[in-house]
Amino acid sequence: MSEAATRWRDRVVAVLASAMVVACILWNIEAPTRLGVAILTQQYMALQLGLALTIAYLSYGFHGKETARVGWIDGTIAAVAFGVLIYAAWDFVWLLREQAYRPWQITMIGTVVTLAVMEGVRRRAGWMLFAIVGVFLVYALFADKVPGRLIGKELSPVRLVQYVGFDPNAVFSTPLAVGTIIVLLFVFFGKLLFAAGGGAFFTDLAMAATGRSRGGSAKISVVGSALFGSISGSAVSNVVTTGVVTIPLMERGGYSKRDAGAIEAVASTGGQLTPPIMGAAAFLMAEFLDISYFTVAGAALVPALLYYLSVFVQVDLIAGRDRIAPSDVDGLTVTQVLKEGWHFLIPFGVLLAALFWWRMDPADSALMSAVAIGLVSSLRAYRGQKLTLGTLGRTFVDTGTGMVDLILVVAAAGFVIGILNITGLGFALTLVLVDAVGSNAILLLGISAVICIVLGMGMPTSGVYVLLAALVAPSLVEAGITPIAAHLFILYFGMMSMITPPVALAAFAAATITKEDALGTAVAAMRVGWAAFILPFVFVATPAILMEAGWAGILLNTALAGIGVIAVTAGIVGFWGRRLTALPRLGFVALGWLSLPLGFLPAAEALHIPAALAATALAAILRGAAPFKSNRTETGRRQT
Predict the structure, then answer these.
(1) Distance from C-alpha of 552 to C-alpha of 549, rounded to nearest angstrom
(2) Neighbouring residues of 146: CB distance < 8 A, sequence distance ≥ 6
């Protein structure tokens, strides 16, 4: 491809990507309705899917890498996908009315959508998701021949592609709707924020707030990644965005390469579990459970705080144990950072007020916040970075191209949901799993956790959640677990695949920055993020952690969980005011474990409060017996 052809291709991609954002904005301000035009949601989704598929095949080659040359095969696929889905968007009402008669047009649309989405998923999401969805497609073709309780309805290849590639209960269902209507606007909000200097503001704020404390370089990573990750849609992008700053800072501060990469991976992954956005999973969860976004965010708040409490305490204790110096933060103070970047608080205030005070729809809240960013950032700069017409235009393009992978993933997840519905496999899987473990809730949760980690490997947040919500969550709910607890459980363990070998994408991304062994970094990340593997069991056993109790119960159980997390962390690190010998470490782990409100065993409930008091007493005794050293004195040797 000549240089002129490449420029032409880039212009086409820029126009299509910008059109995705413009279409989303127009849809959310109800422009068609205001103009007197009736458009179905499926028509809008077909347009967005067509734009995403066209961008994917124009931008990425057979091996999934960005390419400067568009081959004739990819160009043909892009043109066919675009044309077919534009036709589907234009004539969807007639097609829907004639669906019962199975016209050839629906067969054509279904075939193109199924093949184009599957190949797009293989290129962009990898072989894992491709294989999972492929297994379901093959099962659907032979479901009537499967022996035992997993037998399903007979489907011909034509009927299958007509259903999964066109039906509103399959590809054009909830996941694609949430992705193209809500998530796209939040991605636009995030892109605008960082184009205006919000990323630098968050990093500077984290540095100023924690940099001068013991292990400040790692605390900067924890706080900065939590702030960035709570609005970022990807744990991996969180790692590569904040990690290029925080990982070298941790290494200079005295953390080993392996620990630095592990801390960044765990801190970045936690952002996907932290309100307000949670990698867009919060909005999907609200739609799946038919509850308000406010309820989802409220339920996720305490577990997220406990997650970051564990990580924060661990990096502090590692710094004390290894005498790691405070960071050099170039004289930054919180006051100085806020004085220069206070305007970034306005769009966040608008977002939180719209979501939690005015109880507006998430899409409307994101749109209002994006407008607020545009207004304040066009008037004020942060460290010379300001939103201009040029950067605004690039933000439209970056948002559209950044949404391509997510749209492909949720479209493929729609295939799975459709197959579960039409074959009856969803009910059968739930019945088989529940019957296999009987009434043993712990065994069911353990098996489900392993399934979530395996299925979540190599997949983005929203794709992980949608797939697990269809496959695993129903069996947990059938076993008596509350729906919100079941869905948060699968989200946590789905995200733990980001730091769990063999496909720990967040840890591997961090390892590419540290130039350290990827598998070793993933193992270290599991140690740093140990609490994330336990907290889901805690909030399933104790709904008060999810705000499903009175305030007395919420505060008591949160305090017990916090004491348990701190005590176990101290035992794992082996430091509490001084290096600990084997006996105190074992004491901390045992008492901390007993403090955690894991109410599966009634006999254990009576031990939570005494164990928490004993752990607190042990901490006080060890701290009192430790030789006093100031942070500066203790860390001075390592700095030298």
Answers:
(1) 8
(2) 139, 152
Query: What gap in Å lies between CA 245 and CA 248, rounded to an integer?
Result: 6
* Burial profile 574-584: b = 16 or more Cβ within 10 angstroms, e = fewer: bbbbbebeeeb
Res 4: pLDDT: 78
Query: How far is Cα 311 from Cα 65, in angstroms, rounded to an integer?
Result: 34
The candidate with the shortest Cα–Cα distance to 408, out of 26, 92, 54, 143, is 54
535 falls in which pLDDT band (50, 70, 90)? very high
Give me the pLDDT at residue 604, please.
Answer: 67
Instruction: Tell me how far apart the alpha carbons of residues 498 and 522 are, in angstroms, rounded to a whole number.
Output: 9
CA distances from 618 to 315, 562, 606, 624 (A): 21, 15, 19, 10
Nearest to 13 by CA among 390, 403, 370: 403
Q: Which two tokens stand for residue 625?
A: 């017996």
Q: At 621, phi and psi to the nearest 5?
A: -65, -45
pLDDT, residue 562, reads 96
> For 90-130, what is each residue's pLDDT tens digit?
999 999 999 988 899 999 999 999 999 999 999 988 888 89
Average pLDDT, the chain: 87
* Cis peptide bond prior to 275, omega within 30° of 0: no
Query: What pLDDT, on a 0 to 100 scale, did the predictor assign at position 230?
Result: 67
Report which of 223, 214, 257, 216 is spatially closest to residue 242, judged by C-alpha positions.
223
pLDDT at 631 over 60: no
Rounded CA separation 310/162 (Å): 49
Whether the model clears a pTM of 0.90, i.e. scores above it, the answer is: no
Helices 257-270 & 293-322, crossing angle to 10 degrees?
Answer: 160
Tell me the pLDDT band of 193, cut-offs 50, 70 and 90: confident
Quote the Cα angle for 53-58-62, to 5°.
90
Instruction: Give the number of other CB atoms < 10 A from CB of residue 353.
Output: 14
CA distance 242 to 238: 6
Q: Which residues make beta-bridge pairs with 382?
A: 385
- Gap between the Cα atoms of 377 and 535, Å rounded: 39
Q: What is the residue type of 38?
A: A
d(CA 87, CA 49): 12
Among the ranges given (358-367, 460-469, 581-590, 620-629), the one the predictor scored with the smallest mean pLDDT: 620-629
pLDDT band of 19, cuts 50, 70, 90: very high
Strand ranges, E, within 68-123: none
Residue 212 has pLDDT above 80, yes or no: no
- Number of Cβ within a 10 Å radius of residue 86: 15
CA count, 13 A, side-chain hemisphere, 128: 18
What type of residue is 256? Answer: S
Report the DSSP beta bridge partners of residue 60: 66
CA distance linking residue 631 with residue 49, whole number of Å: 55
Helix spans in 254-388 (H):
257-270, 281-289, 293-322, 334-341, 345-352, 362-379
3-state secondary structure labels for all residues of 555-606: HHHHHHHHHHHHHHHHHHHCECCCECCHHHHHHHHHHHHHHCCCCCCHHHHC
Q: Does the structure show a pLDDT above 70 at 403?
A: yes
